[in-house]
Amino acid sequence: MKKTLAILHTTPVTIGPLQELAKKTMPDCQIYNLLDDSILPQLIAGQDRGTIILRLQTYVKMAELTGADGILSACSSIGQWMIEASQQVSVPVMRIDEAMAEAAVQGGGTIGILATLTTTLEPTTALVRAKADAAGIKVQCLPKLAAGAYEAMLGGDQAAHDERVAQALRSLLQQCRVVVLAQASMARVAAQLDDVPPQAYLTSPVSGMQRVKQVLYGGQT
Prior knowledge:
Blueprint: E1 4-9, H1 15-25, E2 30-35, H2 39-44, H3 49-65, E3 70-73, H4 79-85, E4 93-95, H5 98-104, E5 109-115, H6 118-135, E6 139-145, H7 149-154, H8 158-173, E7 178-181, H9 187-191, E8 201-202, H10 205-217
Parallel strand pairs: 1-2, 1-3, 3-4, 5-6, 5-7, 7-8
């Protein structure tokens, strides 16, 4: 049965890759994209969270009205508020990073968490800890900010962004069993690093989209 998925983005960077991944994972699924690229700058500036939550509630209602069978939050920074927003609709609301966090805690030990924004680093760390607690697994979280990477991307210097992320990832791997890449946009950088084995880090896009498939189709398309 054909399904419709609405994806909520806070940056245009994730639209193309996630839409392509969604079509590859669920060929018969219709994809709608909702973008509000004002959210991250406002979070960084310390804007009242209440107004942002109200907007998220509006977006999920809009997505349901378009006929969406499910809604995916592509941004880890707003993931914790999407749970609250989900109470406004009757369709499932999913986080791109939830399956990744569940996988990360399975081996226990020290888990590195890498992000380019503190607004993403803090909620992702909280999510990993919550998943560990729920599973009864003892973990130690080691959060790290890839300093200057986000600013480089805003300035249009993609190469500098990628280099800062790569350096931070290599540094963190020296102290951790595995590193969680907190932002979906970081998966591309890690995949290009020949000296970093794939099993050393976890990214959210593929596992997140597989979770969407399970929810919408029961694992079958």
